[in-house]
Amino acid sequence: MRRPVFHDGGPRVATAAARLTDDYDVRPLSGEPIGAVVLVGTGSPAQPNESTRLIGLVEGGDPGPWPLTWYAVLPVDAPAAMLRRAVGNAFADLESEADLDRLERDLAELNAIGIRLSSEANPRFLLETILSKARQITTSDAGSVYIVDHAGGDGAHLRFALAQNDSVNFPFRAATLPLTEASVAGYVALTGRIVNLADAYAPPADSPFTINSFFDQHARYRTKSMLVVPMRTPQGDTIGALQLINCKADWRGPLGDPEQVERYARPYGPRHEKLAGSLASQAAVAIHSRRLYLSIRDLFEGFVKASVTAIEARDPTTSGHSFRVAELTVSLAEVVDRCATGPYASVRFNPDEMMELRYASLLHDFGKVGVREHVLVKANKLYPADLERIRHRVELLKRELALRAARTKLDAAVARKRNYAQLAARLDAELAAAVADLDRQLERIVIANEPNMQPRDLDVEITALGSRTWEDADGLPRAVLTPEEMRTLAIPRGSLTEEERRDIQDHVVHTFDFLRRIPWTKELRHVPEIAGAHHERLDGSGYPNRARGDQIPVQSRMMAICDIYDALTATDRPYRKAVRSDEALAILDSERRAGALDSTLLDLFISARVFEHVTRSL
Questions:
Q1: 139's torsion region: left (phi>0), alpha (psi -120 to 50) or beta?
Q2: pLDDT for 229-261, tens place per residue?
């Protein structure tokens, strides 16, 4: 199509313009020309715009000055060759400016796409963004994304990951293809070369690949022009291939039938190759970065799980507790996230915050690694060695008493006392009574050693036993219990002394200190704070900081409820019998009424039956 050249209608200018009719479409000026050259004379009202170039034709003796808006000035009777050269230069200038504008738009578009790709976290949305943007900047009717998949042990495959088509609605089905040069996508992925086909049904004769026409046959579509570019990282790793189909440079509607394809589908040009290649490189970097992020996250996930397992291995009786607490806490957070009324109606947790809460819950007892192991696994009030020492002491006392009785009887026999028989019988009876009393007291000690709540009379008896002494064979006073053992057996609840309880409670301090040393990402920066506050209580009765009310993060308040519930219902604690679910909820309710637990969160925990979500097999 010939380019238009306009003139302002002056007789002399019109005569000059007529010399260009062999090369250009010469017309009188009417309206505002676009993408054209205009020949004007002195005093012409024509004004240039961004896509117009004015060439002034002046009389030979005209000294000027001439308007600055004129692209060039020639004599009105200039030779035709000179005029054609000036007009050609003007069009070349228009093309250069148009190319520059187009380049700026392309760069701006690619920059915007790069920003969008780098910020997209969802893998599915990332692929959709890549393909839709590639089709947009190349005006493609359809396209596909193929990803090189190294999963499995039998080598790499090519995964047909996504397809889009403006003209036909055909259900997409993911598929796996061999990574070979037999397919155009495989060829591009393996070689890293761009394939640009004016007609996909007529590839070069020496091409190793063939075009699969299955889709065209079943969807009644016609794949004509095709551009396939590799998605490769700057390091040379091939991520996959981006396939674009049917460039529609002069048409924005769907290609409803093969006739429209033949009419409107255009071959892809060098500009399309550069744009698609640049976007494919950006896409490869985005996919590679996302894969790297996911692999690092999986690595950290495995490290966290391994750490929790290793810590709980120090105390097999609590195995699985941290995993169950994490499951319960995240389930409660999901309930809070859906809550539309009440104090937490405005509280919402995004995926990063959910992940942060999960890690904080998994690691809430991480500080137990700093607790002495014999304290951590202490099941009864006395350590096994301490109870065994008392048993030996009782046995020794029995033998001392038997030896003392035997010595008394021997002395009486040597002295030939007349009442020896009565004396021996009395000594045997006293010894039997003393041994029975020691056995009974040892039995009471074993009962008192249990961490359960003990009857009042047993506490009194243990106190009395601690102050009672026995005379050994040498007449020296001996006690069954030392003062320290007596104080330990007098523990009113549980198995820990005050010193040991402080040692256990310090695990929260250790948790915070250990976790804050980890260089958490911005999304997970609150993990130490959340995990370190799970034993705080709203009334200030918790530890380690005696925090109150809103000083305690809502995530820690949720974890506190879940932690208590699991500890009460756990069936693997040798020092305490597991309680039924309804009993555990009643205990939680009493803690709520005492002001220790968050009432609204506990209501949600109960009404949503979050406690049923836990997997006891963990």
A1: left
A2: 998 888 888 889 999 999 997 777 888 788 888
pLDDT at 51: 83
Question: CA-CA distances (angstroms) from residue 111 to 114, 324, 390?
Answer: 5, 46, 80
Over residues 331-353, the pLDDT tens digits come to 999 999 999 999 999 999 999 99
In angstroms, rounded to a whole number, what is the distance separating the alpha carbons of residues 50 and 301? Answer: 58
pLDDT band at 609 (very low <50, low <70, confident <90, very high): very high
Phi-psi region of 474 (alpha: psi -120 to 50; beta: other; left: phi over 0): alpha
The number of distinct structural domains making up the chain is: 4
The whole domain housing 520 covers 314-374+499-613
Q: Are 394 and 480 in contact (CB under 8 A)?
A: yes
**88 class by beta-carbon count within 10 Å (0-12 exposed, 13-18 middle, 19+ buried):** middle
Residue 403 to residue 7: CA distance in whole angstroms: 140
State the distance between the two ends of the chain, measured CA to CA, in whole angstroms.
76
Domain boundary among 259, 291, 323: 291
Q: Residue 168: inside a domain, yes or no? A: yes
What CATH number is associated with residue 15? Answer: 3.40.50.2300
Indicate if 248 and 339 belong to the same structural domain: no
Please tell me the distance from the alpha carbon of residue 184 to that of residue 410, in angstroms, as a whole number.
Answer: 110
Contacts of 97 (CB under 8 A, 6+ apart): 50
pLDDT of residue 618: 38
Average pLDDT, integer, range 17-37: 86
Dihedral angle at the C-alpha atoms of 587, 592, 595, 597, nearest 10 degrees?
100
Report the alpha-carbon distance of residue 439 to residue 448 in Å, rounded: 14
Residues in the chain, total: 618
User: What is this structure's pTM?
Assistant: 0.66
Residues 6 or more apart from 381 whose CB is under 8 A from it?
A: 448, 449, 450, 451, 488, 489, 491, 495
Residue at 358: amino acid letter: R
- Quote the CA–CA distance of 244 and 145 in Å, as a whole number: 9
Residue 443, token pair as written in the block: 């039995």
pLDDT of residue 617: 41
Residues 250 and 137 in one domain: yes
Q: Are residues 565 and 423 in the same domain?
A: no
Which residues pair with residue 479 across a beta bridge? 469
> Checking DSSP bridges between strand 25-28 and strand 4-7, what pairing results, if any?
parallel
In a domain, 205, yes or no: yes
Tell me how far apart the alpha carbons of residues 309 and 302 are, in angstroms, rounded to a whole number. Answer: 10
Answer whether residue 115 is part of any domain: no
Quote the distance between the C-alpha of residue 302 and its chain's center.
13
Determine the Cα–Cα distance for residues 334 and 358; give it in Å rounded to an integer. Answer: 12
Same domain, 568 and 461: no
Answer whether residue 599 shows pLDDT above 90: yes
CA-based radius of gyration for the chain: 45
Residue 107 belongs to a domain: no
Cα–Cα distance for residue pair 148/128, rounded to 1 Å: 17
Residue with tokens 């969807």: 219
CA–CA gap between residue 298 and residue 300 (Å, rounded): 5
- Decide: residue 59, CB within 10 A, 0-12 exposed, 13-18 middle, 19+ buried: exposed
Asked if 368 and 321 count as a contact pair (C-beta separation under 8 A), the reply is no
- Residue where the block lists tokens 């037999």: 182
CA distance 510 to 516: 10
pLDDT per residue over 87-100, tens digit each? 999 999 888 887 77
DSSP 79: -
